[in-house]
Amino acid sequence: MERIISILLTILLVGGCSYSVETELLAEAEYRRISPEEALEIMDSCDAVVLDVRTQAEFDGGHIPGAILIPLDEITENAEDIIYRFGINQVILVYCQSGRRSEIAARALIELGYVNVFDFGGINSWIGEVVR
Question: Which phi and psi angles does 131 have, rounded to 5°?
Fold first, then answer.
């Protein structure tokens, strides 16, 4: 029964994402850095969570539309709440200001068991819209 549920979840997740990382989804979890262009393409084709790991003040100064703020220190402190909030198979796109904190956060999420985590660096190199 678990195998059937797993197969159905895989079909639903991959079926709902037309981005070229489909073959990577649900694979063995590993750190993956992608470009801002690739992140934008994923956002346009998937129901991805865009995760901003900066501070509240930085977020208030400008953020990617639809981004969810979870500062880096809260990711490690509130691991169980984060797993409850998002499914373990959720596509998560992580960014910060320059790329250092997003890498740390992406690696922490992978350690928590997430398999579809993509770090696209900092908002400094973002090519899309920014809410101010």
Answer: -85, 130
